[in-house]
Amino acid sequence: MKLNGFLGRLKTLLDLIRLRNAVIAFSGVYLGAVVFASGAPIPQWNVLAAAVSAALILGGGNALNDYFDYDIDKVNKPSRPLPSNRISKSDALMLAFAMFLIGLGVAKSINTICFLIAFFNTSVLIVYAVYSKRLLLASNLIISYLVASVFIYGAASAQTPGVWVNPDGVKLAVILASCAFALTLSREVVKDIEDLEGDKKAYSTTLPIKYGVKKAKGAAFLAAATAVALSLTPILSPTVGFNELLYGIVIVVTDFIILASFRTEPNVNQRILVFTMTLSILAFLLGISIQFITHP
Questions:
Q1: CA distance 269 to 158
Q2: pTM given for the model
Q3: Which of 7, 69, 241, 281 has the greatest CB tally within 10 Å of its CB?
Q4: Which of 267, 253, 117, 246 is nearest to 177 (CA)?
Q5: What's the CA angle centered on 99, arms 97 and 102, to 5 degrees?
Q6: Is 40 exposed, middle or buried (0-12, 13-18, 19+ CB in 10 A)?
Q7: Along the 296 residues of the chain, how does pLDDT read in single tens digits?
Q8: Distance CA 81, CA 70 (A)
Q9: Distance, CA of 11 to CA of 244 (rounded, Å)
Q10: In terms of Cα–Cα distance, which of 183, 163, 178 is closest to 234?
Q11: DSSP state letter for 67
Q12: Contact 39, 293 (CB under 8 A)
């Protein structure tokens, strides 16, 4: 019974911090670092520390967001840990700030740039949690920036002071972050459409509430189309040490799924968009796979 209770409590905490998102952030840091290094060895401990700190800070942000979204989630997502009373609001709040502090401490051990990014992102996460439902499109842009910054954060952790920066690595890292920004923006707007009824009851100001579902869906599709166009850049502008064939096969399939997802209902659409983010990461990993063959 004690073991079952412990496992149940652990599951509640992992649901609260969104384990899947934390894993994606962890992986994203590594991908940003490897893409930026462009075949050169990466400082393993620095990148690992960056990945851990990113996962911790993101997890803290998710817990804090649920704390402030308690009333909305009672309508939109009653099965979430807080509205379902699986964890108290005070415990969620303490967990959030504990994760923030530990994440910042780890980031400080890497380098100054990583600490500044981590500190800025933590501040943004707090502002987002408190004011997100009143910021209209700005809240969607904030989340999009935070997701994209994971890859930049990884790149910053891989930079060794005094070592020459490979412009090809910078180009790929920027493309990766830009794609992540546009696709996340699309997903966030679609999610607002899905949460429309609960957001109305909470007097939130979101794009579909302000301008209607049709215009919001059009904006989401435009952001997704932008991500698709950006994803083709590594194919149209080849980079030394990047496998355009393997990357292209996966990314073209991914792009098709992204565009086709807009023919589904919002709840399905936004889940498909999350899935395509994982596929996009896989595409970039395959693209840089030649580096591991030529630089064992």
A1: 35
A2: 0.85
A3: 69
A4: 117
A5: 110
A6: middle
A7: 465 666 778 788 888 888 888 888 998 999 899 888 877 788 899 999 999 999 999 999 999 988 988 877 777 788 888 888 888 889 999 999 999 999 999 999 999 999 999 999 999 999 988 887 677 778 889 999 999 999 999 999 998 766 666 787 888 899 999 999 999 999 999 998 988 877 776 667 788 888 888 999 999 999 999 999 999 999 988 777 788 899 999 999 999 999 999 999 998 999 999 899 889 988 988 888 755 444 44
A8: 10
A9: 40
A10: 178
A11: H
A12: no
Closest CA to 36 of 136, 131, 176, 132: 176
Say whether 173 sits in a helix, a strand or coil: helix
Closest CA to 176 of 150, 215, 207: 150
CA 217, 128, 50 angle in degrees (round to 5)? 105
Count CB neighbours of 148 within 10 A: 23
118 contacts 143 by C-beta, under 8 angstroms = no
Token pair listed for 255: 């792009």
Q: What one-character-per-residue DSSP string does 92-150 give?
A: HHHHHHHHHHHHHHHHHTT-HHHHHHHHHHHHHHHHHHHHGGGSTHHHHHHHHHHHHHH
- Contact status, residue 67 vs residue 89, Cβ threshold 8 Å: yes
First vs last C-alpha separation in the chain:
48
Domains and CATH numbers, the chain: 2-294 (1.10.357.140)
Distance of CA 8 to the CA centre of its chain: 26
Q: Which of 189, 64, 203, 196 is nearest to 138 (CA)?
A: 189
- 222-242 burial code (b ≥16 CB/10 A, e <16): ebbbbbbebbeebeeeebebb
